[in-house]
Amino acid sequence: MHHLVSRLRKAAVAAVAASLLAAPVPPVAASEPGTLVVATMWEALPLSMAPRRSRFFNESEILDTLIKLDYQMKLIPGLATSWERVNPTTWRFTLRDGVKFHDGSDFDAEAAKFSLERVIALLPYASDLLNIARMDAKGPLELEIETTEPFAALPNQLTDAITGIYARSSFDAEDKFVKPVGTGPWAFVDYQKQDRTIVERFDGYWGPAPSLEKVVYRYIPDHNSRALALETGEVDFVEHLLPSDVERLSRDAAFKVYVEPSAGLYYGAFNAGEKSVLKDARIRQALNLMVDRDILVKAALDGIGKPAWQFFPDDFPWVSETVTPYTLDLAAAEALLTEAGYAKTDGKWVKDGQPLTLRILSYSSRAEMSPITETLATLLQGQGVATQVQMFTWEGMLDLVKQGDYDVSVVFWTPEMTGHPDLHLKSQFHSKAGLNYQFWVNEEFDALVDKGRTLDAGADAMDTYARAQQILQTDAPIIPLVHKVFVAASSAALDGYRVHPSGFFYNFKEATKK
Amino acid sequence: MLHQLGLRLIYACLLILAVSIAGFALLRLMPGDFAEVLLMSQMDGTLPDAETVARFSAENGFDAPLPVQYLDWLWRVAQGDLGTSFVTGDPVLEDVTLRLGKSLTLALLALGTGLVISLPVGALCAFYPGSLLDRTFATLAVVGMSIPNFWYALMLALLFSLTLGWLPSTGHGTWAHAVLPTLVIGTSISGVLARYVRGCLLEELSQPYVRTARSKGLSDRRVLLFHAAPNVFPAVLTLTGLQFARVFDGMIIVETLFAWPGIGRLLVDSLLSRDYPLIQACFLVVAASYVLINLVVDYAITLYDPRVRGVV
């Protein structure tokens, strides 16, 4: 028996020694100079033209859009250098001269027309977004677009990442999408499924040349693993940090943490239809007055988010001072509920013996949804409103929402993505909108939104949208909760990176790596 | 015996068929209109209109009764056509085979690691039942069985990648990348295996033939290695085969954590994007591997152990 033990002991010692000898070769390859390795939360691109995927082509700047947004969400020239509305339904775009695609072919009006037509044919979302009736190449560098109705928001919609311009060689002879060939600073090189996408600097780029040579987008779905990969030096940049990592990495001089407001709003959509108590606007307003968004952001997101008291964030260019944000006003909320026929007994709001109860739905595929939803429910309970929280998949939730079997659905949208209020107000809150499952009908709002999209930017447009936003506040089909804050981190070696507020733009062309 | 094995093979096929029916039904019974949900995932959450849904439904045969759809799918699978992915448009077979190798590598390495750890530990504990050593390993085994993989994997990654810098924390491609995933799954199954080996050996060691062997003057080591061990081998092998389910379980988490592009992560990703042909194929491949591995184990045992020949 002792022989066996000593034998085993020797074997164990030998095994440990062998593993120690084998292991110390450092397999953790730090990325090469000139190469930036980025860890992404979503798979960057199966090579297909589905919207989220094709957005990546623009996010990573393989493609350029005709028009771009600057850091203040204002329109700046992209592949189009200027644009004007020649009559209510016609826009004329002057295109940039001397631009080459990655395959060496020339960019011109015909190429832009071809690309937009392909995008519209392949992505139904694009046709809703752009409202294009007809496109004409009036000259080599002049593109004329006629819209189906007077449409002032077209230049803004043309900043949407899915409208990026593809070269003909992006498609095969049968018009099937093959790979993204664009005019951007980065040319697509390789894609390994569920693993990585590689882009390389395009030396024929029309703008200032990037300093980095190569960007590798690695798909690391797990939040903890992504942060760990940054700390071990396997990647240089990670997106979507957990709040707990933000604090830890901020204290470490080896890393830079980016915490910037960006497009995106978490809000509770109210069911204003017959099936819910929330058809009474007074209750919707009361809820808006009784939820402390500051506490919500602290409790649900460790403070990483901007408390939302109105639909658009106050730094959005289209927010006027005439729009009044909500404030925490418990007395006003109580007055409204009393007016609506409720009385507070034993700390609970009751009407005709029935407690005020809200069925709150959300979906769990976005990590932040459950803490936000649960905190909202807790805060409401604290004010005497009973809640039932149910988490689903996005599709499962929509199923109930469409039938009106809910009171509040907590959702996330990026309403200011194109820098124009039309996109979201029209598609989400207009009574005829396909996505309006809130059964909210406000004719005055409809008229303002229908008018707003026909007006050129200016005082009139500003006033129209301010009034529409004010209705959104006072008639309250939603409860705004949190404006999203973008969180990412990089190694300290990365310089010149700036967070783009649209939320759909990596913009590594100005970045350098020491 | 061939007859028996033939029967087992038929049972195995029926089992795989049952799994595929269950998978098919499960996908169709998920909330949301099936065609609409699929279209929506392709359109990045934008809702398609009723007409588009109807056209898409008709194009893909979703308007046929469910049994017809299932048989249609089965018929195509029988011809080796697993369909094309709804999300990427690539052939599913290509997607699955690409990852099957990576996952099998991980699974076999993990099972191997599990055995390498559990066999000597189990034997040692059976040799000194009730000793400090035995109790320590018993505690470790329980701890190992109870620790959730996602936490354990992160702890290992913290130690070996961040603190020691020996191993990469994510990715694949070199053997170094395989060490952490293998270690996580391998050690997580070795607790069960070690306890089982110990239990079997203890039972064997109390058998009369062991007493006889000892009374003949054989050393303890000889008794253990050449008399008791061969008799517990079939039982341990059976349990090892069954552990494959746990290995796959582990792979779903471990592949996501270590960004290892295998079947487990393919399944997670395709579930999230409702890529139904891909999900069906993953179900099929995983179920088939499980059944196949256990069939091979059973077959190996009948070859090895004359007592069970004819009973399989």
TrEMBL record, chain A:
GO molecular function term, any single one: peptide transmembrane transporter activity
Protein name: Oligopeptide ABC transporter, solute-binding protein
Domain Solute-binding protein family: 74-431
GO CC annotation: ATP-binding cassette (ABC) transporter complex; outer membrane-bounded periplasmic space
Localization of this protein: Periplasm
Main location: periplasm
Organism the protein comes from: Polymorphum gilvum (strain LMG 25793 / CGMCC 1.9160 / SL003B-26A1)
InterPro entries on file: Peptide/Ni-bd, SBP_5, SBP_5_CS, SBP_5_dom
Database matches in Pfam families: SBP_bac_5
Assigned keywords, A-Z: Signal
Annotated family: Belongs to the bacterial solute-binding protein 5 family.
GO BP, sorted A to Z: peptide transport
The organism's place on the tree of life at top rank: Bacteria
Signal peptide span: 1-29
SUPFAM superfamilies, A to Z: Periplasmic binding protein-like II
TrEMBL record, chain B:
Molecular function via GO: dipeptide transmembrane transporter activity
Keyword list, A-Z: Cell membrane, Membrane, Transmembrane, Transmembrane helix, Transport
Membrane topology: Multi-pass membrane protein
Keyword Phosphoprotein tagged: no
Cell compartment(s), UniProt: Cell membrane
Name of one Pfam family that matches: BPD_transp_1
Segments passing through the bilayer: 9-30, 106-129, 150-169, 175-197, 223-244, 250-268, 280-301
ABC transmembrane type-1 domain mapped to chain residues: 100-297
Family as reported in the entry's similarity comment: Belongs to the binding-protein-dependent transport system permease family.
Protein name: Oligopeptide transporter, permease protein
